[in-house]
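Batch 3, record 17
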Amino acid sequence: MGLGGLLDALWQVEFLRMVVLAAVVFTFLAVGGPLFLVLAERKISAWIQARVGPKHVGPHGILQTVADTVKLLQKESIVPHRADVVLFTAAPVLVAVAALLDWIVIPFAPGVIVRDLNVGILYFAAVSSLTVIGILTGGWASNNKYSLLGGLRSAAQMVSYELPLGFSLLVVATLTGTLSTVRIVEAQPYPAHFYPSVIVAAVVFLIAATAEANRIPFDLPEAEAELVAGYFSEYTPMRFALFQLGEYGALLASSALFTTLFLGGWKGPFALPGVGPVVDGMVWFLLKTYAVVFFLMWVRWTYPRSRIDQLLNVSWKILLPVSMANLLVAGVLVVLG
Amino acid sequence: MPLDWAYVAVFALVGAVMAVLPLGVVWLLAPRSQYAHKRIPYESGIVPFGEAWSQFHVRYYLFGLAFLLFDIEVIYIYPWAVVLRELGGFALVEMAVFLGVLGVALAYAWKKGALEWA
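Prediction for the assembled complex:
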């Protein structure tokens, strides 16, 4: 076997590795995660509202979302009259793929990351905003007035909150001097004099991430009292499920990114006894991520929906100036410290 | 480096295939009975009038434009954020000027009412 043949063989191994990794990540994070989150959301909302929640399918209702998925698979698929069929079908797929692509740069434990891109957080900002294209496309392609308005509102909301989100990422990049998610985790805990800047960035990030995930108090795109179901009004079960998959996948991914940037990623307050650094890292990482998810669900079931003008005011007139100033403060802290 | 982006491409392809799979299952399992009335877009129970693809309010464009401008500026700040430590105070002053201009732009848009949902 010559050098060319060896390179070919290496490429085939690498390619196989990519495909298997993609399938594993898709199954466990982009599908398994959302299935679990939907159940968690229903259980937590029931708990907050003093109800029982899903109870009958499996022990304590833990198989409810699996049963729901099986039901969704048997439902007829309808494309509305004069809709744009290609875009109508592509939109939910794009949203689901965007949620998968987020996971490439999330470090779970030391050395456990799909690919440590040197532009990590810029990449995350880029692919997570693909969701808005999917939602806008779906709303437009449906040939339904509610869908169109829901899609447009969603686009206005998501692009508005992308700016403060981007500035929060920039603050972290300035403080750590890198865009790689692995090196950002290694740079934590941050020195104490960075705290003012980090805390402001974390709060802005959390608010903006809630808005990006279209969750209460920012769930205007699908405000059911005004817009039926917003951009997915016309979507029949399985395609609707892909949108849900993308939405909960994005929620889980932004919680994971919050953990990575602000909560120390895989680093725990103490090492778990008797397990290696990899298991230890994963346990702490997942604990923190799900704590963030729980916080977002708690917010959703506690607050009312805001109005769209209030929502855009918060982004453009409060979060954006604050985060721009915060970036300068971070720069001063880096240069002085 | 190219390997990194090969990963991204393969993830996108595998993700698309795996997202289309359940649609294939629906195609195999689900009942089908198509008739014209079933495909009418939903409009709260009445027969829809006109097209959904009609004119909509200009304010969406205003927010879109403002976003586009700011988003491009943000891209310029990323390389600065990475090398600030080496460049030191001068780069900080430069970025203060850059963000100052951006702040004036935001104030102008605000004053002109481009940020009002009216």
